[in-house]
Each structure stands twice: as structure tokens, then as C-alpha cells.
Design a protein that fits this description.
Helix content: 25-40%
Low-confidence stretches: none
Order of helices and strands: HEEEHEEHEEEHEHEEHHEEEHHH
Shape: globular
Distance between the termini: 10 Å
Number of domains: 1
Radius of gyration: 20 Å
Strand content: 25-35%
Structural class: alpha/beta
Number of strands: 14
Number of helices: 10
CATH topology: UDP-N-acetylmuramoyl-L-alanine:D-glutamate ligase
CATH architecture: 3-Layer(aba) Sandwich
CATH class: Alpha Beta
Mean pLDDT: 93
Strand order of the largest sheet: 4-1-9-10-11-12-13-14
Length: 331
Amino acid sequence: MRERLTNLVREFAKRRVLVVGDLVADQFLYGEISRVSREAPVLILRHERTETVPGGAANCAVNLASLGAQATVIGVVGADAAGDALLGRLRAAGVDCEMVVRTPEVSTTTKVRVLAGQAHSMRQQVIRVDYEGEPPSGAQLKSELGARLHEAATRADAIIISDYNYGVAGAETVAALREAAGRRGLPVLVDSRFRLLEFTNFTSATPNEDEVEQVLRRRLTDAATLEAAAVELRERLGHRALLITRGSQGMLLLEEGAPPRHLAPVGSREAVDVTGAGDTVIAAYTLALASGATYADAANLANHAGGIVVMKRGTASVEARELLSSIAESS
């Protein structure tokens, strides 16, 4: 298996993947605790620095690029400072942003995480503030997204739908995506936070265990109920496979015509930070499938990538060399 997975990773640089979805600016505001406020029983932070990194579909695209692939992203950002910072970071990471729609009609969705600590201690997240832009609307904007999708799909080896429920992956966009992907027989992978059942008859999806419970509206208390739920969900979606991430419990792969396959977690079971880990998982999974992997090998590669990224703080990505090292060290 090590040899197969290694050879797949070395194919990543030949692959072109299109990401369609919600672009998010993840901001991390770092501060040192200076004192307690006289105005209210709250801490006062002395601002140290603010960093903006790609989040949501943008983080998925960065992970594709860091794994060596040619990544193109389609989404919408506002004509604002957050949009400037987000596009700048994407371009610096090597992501093709030519298909991003920039418009003053929306504000760039921004998630601000405040991290605080004493002078010589590690900074910890104390609160998150979300600035949620209005969903893209208007016939002209939706038509523009569809046109760009059709153009970009002609050069892609696979497509990822990265849906954070901010409106880019709406009905019109998905219809255009189905047509574009169907024309060339492209694999389409889905990561949807709240609307998974709306993305039927694609290749595969990568929900986490909590999302499966939310979709099916019931608790999954053991391995047997999880397996039954996975069978039901895959059939309802009409996907060829379903890869469920389970945090410290690893992953579960449910493939059409095959028994459920449990994957033990790679690396430490104690994650440092799971922010954006799902973006890393679907990026590695998609690249493997686009490179001709079986679902089992693609899931194993995604498992390695997920195990690496959760040991990094903040919204992070995984490089191909890290993935190769993890594969080489596996038993």
C-alpha cells in the first residue's frame, strides 16, 4: 500500500482541480491579556497582530495547491479589504483566482477568531465573530458564475463543491456544474455543511459524523448504527462512495457494492486544532481519485492528510512532502 500511495502523491502535480463554493476570510486576532476592564468583568487585550488566511472553499483550494495540484477556485468576494486580503493570500499560495467574481454587491464573509494569552503563554481562542455576507443574488451574477464554471470545467480533472451555506452553490450553479461535469465525465466531490441531501448523484461526499447525525436526524451511538446510517445516506445521495470523518476515531468508507471499511486514525488521537481539517481531507481524497486511485486508497491518503493537518494551529494546509513522509512512516 505504501508504494501505491506514494505513487499517487507523485501524480498530484499533473492534476487540475476546480473548487466551487463559498470563499471565507479567516482572520486571527492575537492579543496579550493586560488587565480586567473597569467597564465590565471582561479581559482587556493588548493587540499584537491580525492575520487573514483563506477559509472555506478558499482553504480547500490552498490545500490542493500545497499538495502540488493546479487549483482553480470559483466563488464570490466583495470589493472590500477582506476580499483584497483573501485574494492576495490565494494568489500567493499559487491558486488561480481568475474565475472569482468580485462585486460591491456583497461583503466578503469573514470569521474573526480572537486568541488571547498571558505574555509568555500560548494564545487560545476565546471568541469568534462572524461577518456573514449576503448570498449572491441577481440573475446577472448567477449567470456569470455559471459561465465561469463551464469555462473552468473544460480544463479540470475533477470538481469539488465546497458548500458552507453562504449561497454560491445554489440551484443554478449546481445545475451548471452537473451539465459541465457530465459532459466530460468528471468526478465531483461534495463537502456541504448543512445541505448535503441537495447534492445528489455525484461521485462522493466527505461529511463528518456530526453532520451525518444532523442529516439523518438521529444519534449514532455505536459502530453498527453508524454503518447502517452510512449505507442509508449513500443510497439517498446516489453517490458511489461516502467517506465519513470521525475525529479521533478515524474514518469510515462506504463504497457501493463493498462492505464498510473502518480506517484507524493516523498519528496522535489528541488533535491540536481541527479548524479546516475537512478541507484538507476532501482535497487529498479528490486528488487521489483524479489520479486513478481506488476509493480505499483515496480514503487512506485522505486519512494521512487529515492526521497531519489537525496537529497544526489555525486554518492550515498539508504539503506533498509531509504526506509522503507520513506514508513512509506508516506501518
